[in-house]
Every structure is written in C-alpha cells, then in structure tokens.
Design a protein that fits this description.
The protein is α+β, with helices and mostly antiparallel strands. The chain has one domain: Jelly Rolls, CATH 2.60.120.10. It is 24% helix and 35% strand. The relative contact order is 0.23.
C-alpha cells in the first residue's frame, strides 16, 4: 500500500497519514512533486533484464523524456542479499539535494522518500506501480530499509546521473526509518 505522511519538521511523532492514491497525488502536487501510477505493456518476470524492462515501459519513458528532456534511463535492482546493501542505504539516508529531477518508477518492491519542504517533512512510501518525480533543488533523503527489496527505473537529464549535494542536516536521524514506518502501517 502506498502511503504519505506529512509531519511538522520538528515533530516526527505528529504526522497526518494519507493512503488513497488521489489524496497522495493531491498533497504531493501541492509541493510540485509528481506522483503517478504506471503499468507495463506486458507481464514482466523476475529474470527480465534492463532492456526488457525499459522496453515494457517505453511509451511512458518516452513521454517523460519528451516533456522533461531526460537523456537516459536505467534499472536498479536491490535485494536483501545484495553485498553492498548497507553502503547503498547509508549513501541515500543523509539529507541532500540534486541539480536534476529525482525520478523513480517502482517496478517491484518499495522505498520511502522523505521530502523536507519548508517546515514540513513528507514521507512518501512508494510501491510497485508508483512513479515519483522530485523536482531539482528539493531537499530530501531516501530509505530502502535494512533488507531492501525493490526494482526501479531511474531517469536522468544529465549524463552524470545521480549526483547529490549533502546539506549536513541530521534531520533524517529523527524520523522513522523505512522499517519502522512500514511496521506502523500494520
């Protein structure tokens, strides 16, 4: 289940949660974040590689490339047995910004984006079928959990791909982790 919780940035225990797609889409649109649902034009299997996956979503990817000037797309696949899962998680957990959009489409699994906008923090749990587009310059962090399980398409407007500018703010340490957030949904 996709979910969005909006917190005061100084009160991580006081969030308001939304679970309906239209509510999540509306609340994120208010801060210029795109939230959509996509579907593949064919069934995919766990064995399908990057080219097959990108071909299955070609129409939607091409539309976004045309609208926003994306230069490239790739597929990231992290599983609980990935040897570098801890390193990858730590890299994304610190609050940062990008000069580029951060666009992710979840083919499988889930991840938690935290967007720090003004005096609020928006925790957006994205799952299979969800696309989130975080505008350039939006302060955020991402948590995939201690045992990540997701496959995402990433889109970039620059040849460098993912380049972060870390803020030095320790705010991410005060908010629930992915695992705590998901446990709280039950």
């Amino acid at each position: 289940m996709s979910a969005l919780t909006i917190y005061p940035d100084d009160q991580p225990e006081q969030g308001v949660r939304y679970t309906g797609f239209s509510e999540i889409e509306r609340e994120l649109a208010a801060i210029n974040v795109k939230f959509e649902r996509w579907s593949a034009n064919r069934e995919l299997t766990a064995e399908d590689g990057q080219e097959t996956i990108l071909a299955a979503y070609r129409e939607s990817i091409d539309k976004l490339k045309q609208l926003y000037g994306f230069q490239s797309a790739d597929v990231i696949n992290l599983s609980p047995d990935h040897p570098q899962k801890t390193e990858f998680r730590q890299k994304f957990l610190a609050e940062h910004i990008h000069d580029d959009f951060e666009v992710r489409f979840f083919i499988d699994g889930s991840g938690l984006f935290y967007l720090h906008v003004g005096d609020k923090v928006y925790a957006a749990l994205c799952e299979k079928g969800d696309l989130i587009s975080v505008p350039a310059g939006t302060t955020h962090w991402f948590d995939m959990g201690e045992n990540p399980s997701f496959k995402v398409i990433r889109l970039f407007t620059t040849p460098e791909g993912w380049v972060a500018q870390f803020t030095g703010n320790d705010i991410a340490q005060r908010f629930p982790t992915y695992d705590e957030y998901v446990a709280g949904l039950s």
